[in-house]
């Protein structure tokens, strides 16, 4: 069973003082999460900008991790451009560094925002990935031998991904992450499907018998405390968790969240995968 730890995201120290932000904090937290049972680490950086600049900021946090744990799997988020457009090309220099084996691909678009005093969702931000942008992201995966880590915010994102699979064009090493949203969502307003058994059933019906590895995550909640986590483990799924999406009443560390996931896996009878085992389970391409 693969545990992926998403260790920071847009969370600030005011929300959770335990969130790692600097490259040094990211490196220390990533190593601690790997030691606790995580097989994959996902992180954001505090400096975006040109692709080479963003890539070097990632590498400052990753080099100590890979020096200490050479088999570790760690990958970035997208790199927003000056106009807010979503970019994937920073993953090219990351792949060329030899430290990247997994790439992010977000195969769709979604409204993300908060709520007004009346409870109505507000805001003008659309997280947008056109079909052309998705094709470009998958092209980077194929060209640079990267396994795509595919976030599913909405059911249509999964159907787009499966169109690539059915056409025989989905890059090797793909993993699907089903993002269930609480009413709180990412920044205040919900999206997609709630973390319920019926919602999981709906996603698995869409997935059908395609042999793609999949994981569950709860945005704005606590995936380990949600019923959907145990149901996923019982059905052969994996777990995506961490401070990035946590929305409970605590201010946990990433290690605490990973440790709780390991305990749930043991209770269900699913052994936890190491990074090398996860690479085999996902069939990540080799250079």
Automatic annotation (TrEMBL):
GO terms for molecular function: 3-keto-5-aminohexanoate cleavage activity; metal ion binding. The keyword Metal-binding applies. Gene3D superfamilies: Aldolase class I. Keywords: Metal-binding, Transferase, Zinc. Pfam families: BKACE. Its cofactor is Zn(2+). The keyword Zinc applies. InterPro entries: Aldolase_TIM (IPR013785), BKACE (IPR008567). PANTHER family: 3-KETO-5-AMINOHEXANOATE CLEAVAGE ENZYME, 3-KETO-5-AMINOHEXANOATE CLEAVAGE ENZYME-RELATED. This is 3-keto-5-aminohexanoate cleavage protein. It comes from Frankia nepalensis. The lineage of its organism: Bacteria, Bacillati, Actinomycetota, Actinomycetes, Frankiales.
């Amino acid at each position: 069973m693969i545990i992926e730890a998403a260790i920071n995201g847009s969370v600030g120290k005011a929300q959770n003082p335990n969130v790692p932000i600097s490259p040094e904090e990211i490196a220390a937290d990533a190593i601690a999460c790997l030691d606790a049972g995580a097989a994959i680490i996902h992180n954001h950086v505090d400096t975006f900008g040109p692709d080479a600049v963003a890539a070097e900021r990632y590498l400052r946090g990753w080099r100590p991790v890979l020096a200490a744990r050479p088999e570790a799997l760690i990958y970035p988020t997208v790199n927003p451009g000056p106009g807010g457009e979503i970019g994937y090309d920073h993953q090219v220099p990351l792949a060329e560094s030899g430290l990247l084996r997994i790439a992010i691909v977000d195969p769709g678009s979604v409204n993300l925002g908060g709520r007004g005093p009346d409870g109505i969702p507000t805001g003008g931000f659309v997280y947008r990935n056109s079909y052309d942008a998705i094709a470009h992201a998958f092209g980077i995966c194929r060209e640079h031998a990267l396994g795509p880590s595919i976030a599913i915010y909405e059911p249509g994102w999964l159907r787009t991904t499966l169109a690539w699979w059915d056409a025989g064009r989905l890059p090797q090493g793909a993993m699907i992450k089903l993002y269930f949203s609480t009413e709180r969502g990412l920044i205040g307003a919900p999206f997609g499907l709630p973390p319920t058994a019926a919602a999981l059933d709906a996603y698995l019906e869409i997935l059908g018998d395609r042999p793609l590895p999949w994981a569950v995550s709860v945005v704005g909640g606590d995936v380990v405390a949600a019923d959907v986590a145990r149901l996923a483990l019982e059905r052969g799924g994996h777990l995506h968790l961490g401070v990035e999406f946590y929305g409970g009443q605590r201010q946990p560390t990433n290690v605490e969240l990973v440790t709780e996931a390991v305990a749930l896996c043991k209770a269900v009878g699913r052994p936890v995968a190491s990074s090398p085992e996860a690479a085999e389970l996902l069939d990540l391409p080799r250079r």
